[in-house]
Amino acid sequence: MPTYTPPLRDMQFVLHEVFQVTEAFKAMPRHADVDADTINAVLEEAGKFAAEVTFPLNISGDTEGCQLDNQTHEVTTPKGFKEAYQQYVEGGWPALSCEPEYGGQGLPFVVNQCLYEMLNSANQAWTMYPGLSHGAYEALHAHGTDEQKKLYLPKLTSGEWTGTMCLTEPHCGTDLGLLRTKAEPVGDGTYRITGNKIFISAGEHGFTSNIVHLVLARLPDAPKGSKGISLFVVPKFKVGADGSIGERNPIYCTALEHKMGIHGNATCALSLDGAIGTLVGQPNKGLAAMFVMMNAARLGVGNQSLGLTEVAFQNALVYAKDRLQMRSLSGTKAKDKEADPIIVHPDVRKMLMTARAYADGARALQVYCSLLVDQEQHHTDEKVRKDSAELVALLTPIVKAFVTDNGHISTNACMQVFGGHGFIKEWGMEQYVRDNRINMIYEGTNTVQSLDLLGRKVLGNQGATLKKFGKLIGQLVAEEGVNEAMSEFITPVAWLGEQMTKFTTEIGFKGFQNPDEVGAAAVDYLRVAGHLAFGYMFARMAQVALRKIAEGSEDPFYTAKLQTARFYFAKLFPEVHSLMRTARAGSKVLMETDAALA
Amino acid sequence: MPTYTPPLRDMQFVLHEVFQVTEAFKAMPRHADVDADTINAVLEEAGKFAAEVTFPLNISGDTEGCQLDNQTHEVTTPKGFKEAYQQYVEGGWPALSCEPEYGGQGLPFVVNQCLYEMLNSANQAWTMYPGLSHGAYEALHAHGTDEQKKLYLPKLTSGEWTGTMCLTEPHCGTDLGLLRTKAEPVGDGTYRITGNKIFISAGEHGFTSNIVHLVLARLPDAPKGSKGISLFVVPKFKVGADGSIGERNPIYCTALEHKMGIHGNATCALSLDGAIGTLVGQPNKGLAAMFVMMNAARLGVGNQSLGLTEVAFQNALVYAKDRLQMRSLSGTKAKDKEADPIIVHPDVRKMLMTARAYADGARALQVYCSLLVDQEQHHTDEKVRKDSAELVALLTPIVKAFVTDNGHISTNACMQVFGGHGFIKEWGMEQYVRDNRINMIYEGTNTVQSLDLLGRKVLGNQGATLKKFGKLIGQLVAEEGVNEAMSEFITPVAWLGEQMTKFTTEIGFKGFQNPDEVGAAAVDYLRVAGHLAFGYMFARMAQVALRKIAEGSEDPFYTAKLQTARFYFAKLFPEVHSLMRTARAGSKVLMETDAALA
Prior knowledge:
The structure is a homodimer of 598-residue chains.
Chain A: H1 8-18, H2 21-25, H3 36-54, H4 58-64, E1 67-68, E2 75-76, H5 81-90, H6 109-143, H7 146-158, E3 162-166, E4 182-185, E5 191-201, E6 211-217, E7 230-235, E8 237-239, E9 245-248, E10 251-256, E11 267-280, H8 286-322, H9 346-378, H10 382-417, H11 429-437, H12 446-458, H13 464-480, H14 487-513, H15 516-550, H16 556-572, H17 575-584, H18 588-591
Helix pairs in contact in A: 1-9, 3-6, 6-7, 6-8, 6-9, 8-9, 8-10, 8-11, 9-10, 9-15, 9-16, 10-11, 10-12, 10-13, 10-15, 12-15, 13-14, 14-15, 15-16, 15-17
C-alpha cells in the first residue's frame, strides 16, 4: 500500500527561502500581516488532513467508483468520501483563501495552492469536489451580481454547498462556439435553460444540500459562435431570496462516464430541462466570465500533476530502497543481503530523479505563479499588478501543459521502478498514471495550451511578456554572473534565454506567412518555454542552497537541492536541443500528408 | 466503438517489395516453395479472424476480466474468449509455423509474426493465450527429450493444449538467480516441484483439456544463483505415456492479479505443492533453455505494441476526420460544416503521423527480424545462419524496448486526438494505452533490454555485431548515394551511423573505467540505436517507393510511404540529438544523489 508524507519542508523552502512570500505580502494590504508561522501551521494541519483523511480513500475510491440511481438521478460516491468532505468543511478548509466578507479566512492564494498540492497527492478524484467549488466561487465573485454573491458566496465559502462548471456538450469541447444549450428569459429576470452537458466533474453527489452549477448557454437573440455565449448560475435546488432551499431544479444527472482514472469523481452527463438560472455578468460575455474560472483551473490542473508526481516519487523511492534485485554494476553494495536494493542501478536513479526534479520544479513554478496571482489582486502598485497579471497569463499554459506532461513522464517512470508490481492495482502506482492522464486533456488540451502560449501570449504581443520573463533571467545573471559556483546553473538558462529570442522571432516570421507554422511548432515551443521556466526555478533554488552552504549550513536538504538541480540540467533540460530542431522542421511535413492519412 | 482493418497492403509491401521474402526463402529448403500468393491468402484469412472474431471481444474482455473460483481453482475468462479460441484451433492457426512432423503447417516464422501483429491489434489480452503456447512449443522443441516432444508438441501444435512460462516469484523478477521453487527427484525420472510463482500470464483458463507449464526451479544440489536453475515441464493434468490425461497435478491458481490492463488475460499466482514434472534440457541449465522462449517472446512483445500502435492509429484517424471543432489556422476548410474536422490542425496531424510512422517502422523492423530468425534456422549457408543469429540478437532488445516505448508514445498520442473522449472507456482508446503499458515491463523491463543491448550485444563483442548492422547502411549508401532523390532519407541515417561508432566507443571507454557509466547511458543509447534501425527501415521503404514512382506508378500508397518517411526524419528522428547529449552527461549526476534520494 502506498504512503504519503506531506513535503512541508520543500514547500517552506520555496515559500520562505526562495520567494520570501511574507516579504512580498507586505506590499499587499490584505495579506500584510500573514507571517511564516501562520502559513507553516496551516500547511502542517492541511498535510495532516490530506495524509490522514483523504489519502486512505484513494485506492478504495478508485476501486468503488461512483454509481447513479437512474430513478432518483442521485449519485453515490465511494465509501468515506462524503464523511471526508464533512471533515473538510468542519476544518474550515473551503474558506481558506475566500474573502472575509463572505466568511472566508482571507489567506493568500499561494497558501491555498499549497493546501491543494497536498490534497491532490492524497486523492485527486476527491479533491475535485471542493476544487471545482472554489472555481465557481471565483467566477461568481468576479462577475456575479450583489444578490448572487450574497446568495451563493457564503455557502460556497463555508462548503455548505459546492459548485461546478458546465461547459462541454457532446459535439463541442474545445470549440465552445458550437454550443447549443438554450436560455430563454422567463420575464422575471430568470432564465429557463435547456440542453445537454457532458463531462461535468463533481456534477452530482450527496455531499451537500445544494450544488451550484455555472452553465454556459445561448440567449434567443445571441450571435453565432463564441460571441453569443452567456453564463448562468443554475442551482440544483432553487434558492429563495433568503437563501432557503426550494424545489428541485430540472438539472439532472443522466449518466456517469466510465473513465480511465479519477474514478472517485462523478463525471456526469447533465440534462437541463427548463432549469431556472440567473445571468452571471453581461449577456453574450459568458466565455470571458468563465475564463476567470478557467485560468485558475488551469493552474489547478498543473497543481494536480504536481501532487501526483510528488506522491508517485515518494512511493517509488521507498520501493527502490526496499526491493532487492541484482547486484550493482560497480560492485556489490549490500553484502549482507541476497541482492542489492535496486536504487543502486543508475537507471532506477534516473527514473526517481526525473520525478523528484519535475516535482521540485513544478512546486517552485506553482508557488511563483500563485504569488503572482496574489500580487495581481492585492499589490498596492498598479504597475506590479499589471506586470504580475501579464506574467501569470504567460506562465499559466506552461503550468497546465508542461507540468501535466511531466506528470505523465514522472508517474510512468515511478510505476516503471516497480517492474511488474507497478502494473498491479494494489501497489497504487498505475492509478497515479491513470489519474494524471486526464490532466493533459481537460481545461483545454495541452495542444490548446500550446497555441494559447505561442499564438496569444507570446506572438500576440510581439514577445513583450516573454521579454519581461527574460528580464528576470537577466537580473539573475547580473546578480550571480560572477559567482563561479552558480555558473553550472546559470549558463544553460542564460543560453536558452538568448536562443528563445531568435527561436521565437523565427517562428513568428514563418507564422506570419503561414499560420500553420505556429500550429506545427507550438507544442515543441511550449516544452522549450517550460524548460526555460524550470531552468530559472532551478537556478533560483540552487542560488539559495549555495548561499546556505556558504553560510556554513550542513543540512543535507540544501545538498539535495543542488543534486536535483544538477540532475535536471544534465538529464532533462537538454531535450530543448531536439525540440528546437523539430519545431523548426516546420509544418510542411505535417500538412503534406494527405496520402499517409487517407 | 473502435474499428479495425487488417493492414494487409502494408504487410505485403514490407514482405514482398522491401524485403522480398520469397526470394530469401529460396535459400531455405524448408520454405523454398512458399510463394507470395500463399502468404497473402493466409494473411487475408488471418486478418478476417482477427477483425471478426477476437476484435469484437476486446472491450468486453477488458470490462469483464477474469474470475477465480477459490474452491475449484478454475478461472472463468471473459464471455466469448473460449469460443474464439475454439475457432482459432479449428482454423488451424496454432499450427501455422509449427513443424510438419508434429502436425504443423511449417510456414515461415515471418508469416506467423504477421498473423500475430493482427491478433495483437484485435485483442492483446486474448492473443496472449495462444501466444504463450507458442513459446512453450519452441522451448520444448529446442530442449525437450524425444518423449517430451512426442507427448507435448502435437497437442501444442493443434492447440488442443496451451502452454505457459513460469519464471517470476514474489521476491524475484529480473533477478531469477534468487528463485526458490524446489524440484526434488522422485526416483523414477520425474521431479516433485514445490513453490510459488506469480505473474503467470494465461496461467489458468478453461480453453483446453490441459495446460503445459514450463517451470523454473532448483534441484536439491543446485549451485546458488542463476547457475543453479533448471527447467521443468509440469502439466496441469498428468499425462500418460500414451498422451492420455491423468489425475490433476497440484499446480493451482491461488489468485488473479488486478491489473492496469490486459484484463482479459488471466495473470495468475500459481502454487506448486509437489507437482510432478520432468526436466527439460540439462540440470542447472534452465535459464539458457528458457531463453529460447524469452528471445522469441521479446520479439513477440514488440509485436504486441506494433499491433496496438496500428489499431490506435486507425481509430484516431477516423475520429480526426469525423470530429468537427474549430477552424483551420490557415483558413476555413469545410465551408459547408459548422467547423472543420480536427485533422486540419497541424498538431493533430503530428499526433496521427507519430503513430503511423511508429507503426510502419516497427512493422518493417519486425518483418526484417523475423526473416532473420527464419534464416538463422533454415538457411543453407552456415555463415548466413550465424550472421542472422547475431543480427537478430542485436536487434531483439531494440524491438522489445524501442517499439514498446514508441507504442506508449503512440497510443497516448492517439488517445489525445480524442480529447476528453479519449479518457472514456467506450471509445476504446484508453484501453490501448493501458494494455500497451505492460509491454514496457514484462519479458525483461525496458531498462533490462537496454543493458542487454549496450552491455552484452554491443560492448560484449567490442561492437562487432553493431558493425555488421553498420555494413547494411554502408551498402545502402553505396547503392543509393548518388541518387539525389534518396539523399533526404540516406543522409540522416549515414550521419547517425557514423556518430554511433564514436558514441559507442566513448561510452565503452568510460564504462571500462566505471561500469555505472554503461548503466547510466544504456536507456538513451537504446533509443538512439532504435532510431538507427528505424532510420534504415524508412530509407529502405522510401527506396522502394521512389523506384515505383519513377517507374510510373501513380498509386498513392507509395506517396504515403514517402510522406511518412519525411515526417519521421523531420519530427521523430531528431530526438537523437538530445539523447546523445543526455547519455554523455554520464553517471555522476545520477549516482551522487544520496541526499536527494534520502
